[in-house]
Structure formats: C-alpha cells, structure tokens
Amino acid sequence: MRGMAFLSPWLIGFFAFTLIPIVMSLYYSFCDYSLLQPPLFKGLQNYRLLFRDPVFWKVLINTAIYAAMALPLGLIAALGMAMLLNLKIRGQSIYRTIIFLPSLVPAAASAMLWLWLFNAKLGLINVVLRAVGFVNTPGWLTDVHWAMPALVLMSVWGIGNTVIIFLAGLQDVPRELYEAASIDGATALRRAWHVTLPMISPIIFFNLVIGIIGTLQVFVLPFIMTQGGPARSTYFYTMYLYDNAFSYLKMGYANAMAWVQLLIVLALTALAAWSSKRWVHYQGN
Amino acid sequence: MTSQTKSPAYLGKIAAHSTLLVICVVAFVPFFWMLSTSLKTLPAIMAKTQTILPHPFQWHNYLDVFRNEKANFLLWTRNTLVIAVLGVTGTTLSSAVAAYGFARLRFRGRNALFIIMLSTMMLPFPVTMVSLFSLFRWLGDHTGMAWLGTFKPLWVPLWFGSAFNIFLLRQFFITIPNELSESARIDGCSEFGIFWRIIMPLSKPALAVVALFAFLSIWNDFLGPLVYLQRPEQFTLVLGLQNFQSKAGGTSWHLLMAASVLVILPALLLFFLAQKSFIEGIATTGMKG
C-alpha cells in the first residue's frame, strides 16, 4: 500500500494525461470532430479517406526519406566521433565539450541560425562555396532538390547527445578484451569490428530506437525553416497532422494520422527488436 | 627526425587530432557566425563581401532586440521563467516521490508499472496532442477557470512526475545503501520521513541533474507552447523568437541572430556551470539496455 501511495501522483498523471488521452484519441480517430461540435462516430471513414489522400502519402514518403537519410548518417557519425573521443590523446575534454555544445541549442534557435547559414545569397555556406570556386550554388532551403538534404545535414550538427551516450558505452568496454585481442594479433580495425561493435551493440540498439521515434516526429525545424516547402518537398508527417488538427480543425482525421504514426513506430521498433537478436550481444548471456 | 616520431602510433595520433579538430571547427563555426552576425550593422550583412569579424561592432543590436516593437523579449523571458520555475519544481518533487516508490519499496505490480512507465517515453506526442487539447478545453468549461491560452497546460501535468525523470532518479535511489533506511525505520521514522529526511538530502546531485534537464526541456519546448498559447503576450521565448522571425525575418538577420544568442545563452551557461553532472546524466540514459 505504501508503495502505491508513493506512486499515486504519477499514477493519477498517467491516467489523466496519458492513458485517457490515448483512449480518447483512438475514439476520436473514428469520428468527425471539429472541436466546435461534439464528436460524431463515423466508423473507419477517416482511415479510408486517409489512405486515399495524396498529401498523406506525400508526407509519409517525405518522412521515410528523411529518416532513411538522417538516422544512419547520425548514428554512424555519432559512433565515429565517440570512437575518436575515446582515444587516449590529449585535449579530449575540450573536443568533447565542443562536439556536445550544439545539442544544447533550442530547436527554434537552431532553426534561425541555419536559416541564416543556408541563405541563398548572403548565407555563410554559399559565400564559402563561391569563394572556393563554385558558380551555381544551390538555394538550399528554397530549392526543391536541396531543401531535404539541407535539413538532414543540419540534423547531424545536433547529435552531441548521441555521441555522449556512445562514449559512455565505449568507456565501459573492459580493457582486457582489447589486450587479449592485441595479443592474438588483431589489428585496430579488427579490434573495432570484433570487440567494440559487439560490446556496445545494446547502446547502438538503444540509440536506433530513440532515433526511429525522434526522426518520425520531425517537426520544429521544417515548421520554422521551410513551412513544408518548396512544393511540399519538406512537408513531414507531424506537420500535416498538426495542420489537420489546428489549421483545418479536422481533429478526427488528425487522430487517425496519429494512430497510423503510432503503429508505424511500434512496427519499426518491433522490427529493430526482432533483428537485434542477430546483432545485439548482452554481456553475461 | 627520430624513428619514434615516424611510428604508426604517432601518425595515428596526428590523424585523430586533425580529424577531431576539423569536426570541432565545423561544430563551432555556426556559433561563431551567429555571434559575429549579431554584432554587425545591417549594411555589413547585406554587403557582397562579408567580413569575418564585425566592423564596427554594433553592440546596441542587443538593446534593439529588447526595444523592438515587433517583439517583447523581456515579457517572453518572464513567461518562460514562470513556467520553468513551476514546472521544474513540480516535476523534480513528484518524480522523486514516484522514483522512491519504484526504487525502495516492494509491492505487487511494481515491475509491471515500471515497464508501463518506461514505455510511455516511446509514445509519440501527436497521439495525445489533440486529446490533451480537448481535455484542457473541457477543464476550462468545467473548472471555472481558463486552461487553454494560459500557462497551466504547460506546467500542471509536470506535477505528476515524468517518466524520464522518474527513471533517472530511480537509478540513483537504488544505489543508496538499504541500511540507512532500515536503521531509520527501527528508530520509528515514517516511510515519507525516510524519503524526505534521508534519501532526498543524499540525492542532491541527481535532483540537480533532473532539475537541469527539466529546465532545458521547458526552455526548449516549441510544440507545447505552439499548441496551447494563443496571444503574443503569453508566448514563451522560443515561440516569440519564431514569431519575431516571421515578422522581421528576411532582412534583420543581425537582430534575429542577437535574439537567438539570448535564447541560447542560458542553456550554455547552465552547461558550463554543471558540465560534469550534465555528461553523467546523459550517459545514464543509455544504460538501460
């Protein structure tokens, strides 16, 4: 009983702000609901409309492309940086601090900064590109082909958190394993492949799952920087969901989108968990 | 040159240092450029050839941000601080209470509830976004006070614990030796007394980390204020920044960068004050696996 007493604040909050909203959201997803009138049950209508909605498919594909680029790039870059930061060389605490700093920047401020850096005429990136001889510098955020890659590139700037989590994992790998591998004649590359990667595979898995959940919800940066443009090339899933809910007041439709999003997240996480049996090694098992 | 300096290990170190240097330059240049732009004059920004350093330094850009008629950064800072103080206090205390239950007490269903709690961290916000909006609208109709268009939706839920903070505190609480609680129990101390007088004072570093993370997540939150706040007088700093950009953006880059520096500064200051607990706190989050 005492245990439940201590949990009660969280339990009340869980019911009020998580569980009941989840149930309501499932119910609303079967309704016509504009906030102004009470919800009207319409069965699967929202879902049927959704799968025939070309904009839904557009934002779904955009989000998939973004995740397929940003997630592997971010994980590989973060792991690479963590491995460099784990070397026994001088100045590591300074390197670590500088690599971590960008992840402290609020997304909205980061959006302002990169709007300026990516600016077609005056932005630093194009100024530098022109200085080294490029003539046709892209318009980046205003260019249908470059807006998405630009968002992916800037996402790598903020991966300091992931780097720190990887670094903590690397520092936990027992030194004896490396020494034993060295005695057996393993080169640095083979030690990284056969010792480091298996040992930190649980952390790779953790970052992968966190990354799936995060990239599928990408919102703030494109919302501020491109508003989904140009020509909907950076219009992502959560942005269309937000617009349906709060611009078009199609709350039922937005909730149907949210449930499809949840199912996709769950399916991808389950897929990652299933595949992890092949590549994640837990110590002592 | 001795043979020592040509050894593979030595070359490897040089390669590692140069790679890290390049990465650090790339990570740092955006900060530098933001700061430099924030001190330039408008003609200097619009000029065909840009200087690396401002010339002349126009310090009053920062004053102009506060005096700008399209923005009210002082009020927005105050709003954010009000939400942050209420939210940080609430989430730190309530998360600690729940974490104590998960870490130090045995009861049926504890592990199941713990797993449910952890899994709520995976829930995409859009799933509850619309229902929460309706909930706060409903509360507005039934409690005799407004909820939407006030700060309440942004801080009241934080008084009921949040999964991430409960997890972090639980990880800390389970490391505290049980003998301390046992001897207090023999002395007749109540369970809440043990929590409040023994565990909490011993957990100050962990509580500080939670408070720090909570402050930053409130400071950085964009979607919450975007959904719940309506009038510019209520905006938080990041929402105000976006509002200012949509009105003044495109030309006044120097002012926009000065405003961004002001938004980033508190986060950076906190980090430098508490760097160690920061890094350790983040490292703990990866230790679940």
Describe the structure.
The complex is a heterodimer of chains A (about 280) and B (about 290). Chain A is mainly alpha-helical. Chain A has a single domain (about 50-280), classed as MetI-like fold, CATH 1.10.3720.10. Helices cover about 70% and strands about 0% of the residues of chain A. Chain A has helices at about 1-30, 45-50, 55-85, 90-100, 105-115, 125-130, 145-155, 160-170, 175-185, 190-215, 220-225, 235-245, 250-280, and strands at about 30, 40. A two-stranded antiparallel ribbon of chain A has the order 1-2. The radius of gyration of chain A is 23 Å and the shape is globular. The mean pLDDT of chain A is about 95. Chain B is mostly helical and about 290 residues long. Chain B contains 16 helices and no strands. Chain B has helices spanning about 5, 10-40, 40-45, 60-65, 75-105, 110-120, 125-140, 150-155, 165-175, 180-185, 190-200, 205-220, 225-230, 235-250, 255-275, 275-285. The radius of gyration of chain B is 25 Å and the shape is globular. Chains A and B meet through helix 1, helix 3, helix 4, helix 5 and helix 8 of A and helix 2, helix 5, helix 6, helix 7 and helix 12 of B.
What features would you highlight for this structure?
heterodimer, A: 285 residues, mainly alpha, MetI-like fold, B: 289 residues
| CATH fold type of the largest domain in chain B | MetI-like fold
Broad structural category of chain A? mainly alpha
Q: What is the quaternary state of this protein?
A: heterodimer
Tally of contiguous helical segments of chain B: 16
Biggest sheet overview of chain B = none
Q: Give a count of the beta strands of chain B, DSSP E runs of length 2 or more.
A: 0
Say which CATH homologous superfamily of chain A is assigned.
MetI-like
The termini of chain A sit apart by 35 Å
Global Rg of chain A: 23 Å
Q: Approximately what portion of the residues of chain B adopt beta-strand conformation? A: under 5%
* Mean pLDDT figure of chain B: 90
